[in-house]
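Please review the protein record below. Tell me whether the encoded fold seems credible here:
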Amino acid sequence: VSLSAQNIVDCGAMFHNRNCGGGFMDSTYGYIKVNGGIDSEESYPYVGTKSDCAFDPSGVAATVSSFVNINSATESTLMTKVAVVGPVCAFVDNSQSTFIFYSEGVYHDSGCLKDSMRQAVLIVGYGATKDGQKYWIVRNSWGANWGQDGYILIRRDSHNECGIASFITYPVI
């Protein structure tokens, strides 16, 4: 079931999120918990601009009972969480032009900072190329026209590339 991003854009400001201007994952979880859930994408579709909050309790697709924040995780811990919990949220440094204009391949930029939490992303998995280069499969929020259909492969086991393991969080359903 796809969850409504528009629900968060329109209704999440009361929890210190700035609509399309950014926000924090744990604030989003707090909103979902207090609100009694988040609508499905089908019941509250994405329109790409801020609108009045139109949350409908009959459209709730998921709830959150709590959430887990892990500061300064290792890539090994991150890998375990992705394998056991499923997709987890993280912050990465997206300040390099190589990140902004990423289109394919396994991303690596030595200028990418490990302690700059600029962009919230969703780590959905991990893998390796045929020649053994390890990577994280990461969904960005910039739409399907960016990267590889909205995803980036960030080099794994590379001493916390772009800070991918510096702060991870996930909801407890």
Q: What stands out?
A: The longest strand covers residues 119-128. Residues 67-172 form a domain with the Cathepsin B; Chain A fold (CATH 3.90.70.10). The chain has two domains: 5-64, 67-172.
